[in-house]
Amino acid sequence: QLQLQESGPGLVKPSETLSLTCTVSGGSISSSPYYWGWIRQPPGKGLEWIGYIYYTGSAHYNPSLKSRVTISVDTSKNQFSLKLSSVTAADTAVYYCARTYCSGGSCYDFFEYWGQGTLVTVSS
Amino acid sequence: DIVMTQSPDSLAVSLGERATIDCKSSRSVLYSSNNKNYLAWYQQKPGQPPKLLIYWASTRESGVPDRFSGSGSGTDFTLTISSLQAEDVAVYYCQQYYTTPEYSFGQGTKLEIK
Questions:
Q1: Alpha-carbon distance A47 to B98, whole Å?
Q2: Whether pLDDT at B101 is above 70
Q3: Which of A22, A47, B55, B65 could form a disulfide with B105 if both were Cys (CB 3.0 to 4.6 A apart)?
């Protein structure tokens, strides 16, 4: 069974860079044709899609966050990562990593597998 | 951008009764080339990640009880729970995956027991 686990600092100072890693187990991150993504959820609020990456390194980002977001992949460690720069209190959220749904060799941009999420608080 | 709007924001239903949640998109998510609606539903229980329930607007994910069903096309969609169980208490979200790469979610509907 595929499992995803987020890790990283739970507290980040304003203006600094938030860095999280998602470790994938029970399957290879290089398995075609899946995309691996990040979604966040501010406390008590709804879901926001951040972006996703293919194992080749091709990434797509939410335009509203694109200037601050970088998603990368490390196939040797079966991990992918999120960096969000110049954070403010508005970036306080539970951050989830997830995998898109694929069937018959085609992938579609909704999420079938999710990590448990990690709360990141932006505060000085 | 496609904006997804759910109604109601919260809902209280008696055990065994029907629950319906609506989701409206600001423009059609029906892809004409394959006649599929690019709309998914998720269930999120407290302290847990979202769980995929339905995709293509009406296809149940494997393992999802058949009391959950999705319907609708174009811009108007509905999630129905035919007979509410205690374990269905959760927040439900719709998501469109029609526009690349701006995949938007609805604001969520909180379902409680009356």
A1: 17
A2: no
A3: A47
